[in-house]
């Protein structure tokens, strides 16, 4: 029997993008796929879009945010392999067969592919190769997390307890830390997913300080050295400062507004 893939999509007011997400799950070379959308009670056209696709299993109700939505999806998932794609991101075409081939090895617990960055304002595409992921690499550089092209064996997700509801911005970093302590992922040099950089996404420099606080609490939990934590804080806060400087220069007309959100960063 072929392995089944379940894709979980947490969603809230992304009606302008979610149809592309759904179509990217359909545009695959693999049929044994389940797509679950957990919507937080969107007030835009999201539900109308969901009704167009009878194969999608969906819930639309108020929730406690993205982490809550992911755990809801995990509870009803019937697949052997779990993917998480947000409602403003999408998969590359015909990649699920490659994903399943990786999991034919029973020792493979999770897999990370490459990510392409799509800058909506300019239409620019930048391909990015996933770095090697280990526990030691994660605690030194939390930004190596690439959530969109990552797939997990459901048994491992259940074993580590799914996503931690205490985190709003760093739930994927926390999950990777807990999984990497048990098994490192298999890294695949193939473009598997696309991250959309746009003006209304959750990851923005307004949320960077909250991200820093959450990452810091995770690192302290893992008994990471104070020196390492301080260096990560400096790097993140400098990124936050640069973001505000860039916005100031754009608002003053000194640089083009197309660069407002153009930086390669991941979505926590």
Q: Care to describe what's here?
A:
This protein is 36% helix and 21% strand. With 268 residues, the chain is of the alpha/beta class. Strands 1, 2, 3, 4, 5, 6, 7, 8 and 9 form a 9-stranded mixed β-sheet that branches. Helix 8 packs antiparallel against helix 9 (226-251). The two termini are 35 Å apart.
How many helices? The count is: 9
Q: What percent of residues adopt helix (DSSP H or I)?
A: 25-40%
Uncertain runs: 264-268
How many DSSP E strands? 9
Overall shape = globular
Strand content: 15-25%
| Largest β-sheet summary | 9 strands, mixed
Mean pLDDT: 89
Supply Rg: 18 Å
Secondary structure class reads alpha/beta
The ordered string of helix (H) and strand (E) elements is EHEHEHEEHEEHEHHEHH
Spatial gap, N to C terminus: 35 Å
What's the gist of this structure?
With 268 residues, the chain is α/β, with parallel strands linked by helices.
């Amino acid at each position: 029997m072929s392995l089944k893939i379940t894709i979980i999509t947490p969603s809230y007011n992304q009606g302008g993008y979610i149809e592309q997400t759904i179509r990217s799950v359909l545009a695959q070379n693999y049929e044994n796929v389940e797509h679950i959308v957990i919507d937080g009670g969107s007030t835009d056209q999201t539900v109308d879009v969901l009704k167009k696709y009878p194969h999608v299993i969906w819930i639309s109700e108020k929730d406690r945010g993205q982490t809550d939505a992911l755990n809801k999806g995990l509870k009803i998932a019937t697949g052997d392999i779990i993917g998480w794609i947000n409602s403003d991101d999408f998969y590359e075409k015909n990649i699920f067969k490659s994903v399943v081939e990786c999991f034919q090895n029973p020792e493979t617990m999770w897999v990370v592919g490459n990510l392409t960055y799509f800058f909506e304002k300019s239409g620019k595409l930048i391909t990015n190769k996933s770095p090697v992921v280990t526990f030691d690499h994660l605690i030194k550089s939390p930004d190596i997390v690439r959530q969109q092209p990552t797939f997990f064996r459901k048994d491992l997700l259940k074993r580590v307890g799914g996503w931690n509801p205490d985190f709003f911005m760093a739930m994927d970093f926390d999950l990777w830390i807990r999984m990497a302590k048990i098994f490192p992922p298999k890294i695949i040099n193939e473009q598997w997913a696309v991250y959309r950089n746009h003006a209304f996404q959750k990851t923005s420099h307004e949320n960077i300080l909250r991200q820093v606080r959450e990452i810091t609490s995770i690192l302290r939990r893992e008994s990471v050295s104070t020196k390492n934590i301080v260096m990560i804080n400096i790097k993140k806060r400098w990124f936050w400062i640069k973001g505000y400087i860039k916005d100031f220069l754009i608002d003053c007309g000194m640089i083009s507004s197309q660069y407002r959100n153009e930086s390669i960063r991941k979505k926590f």
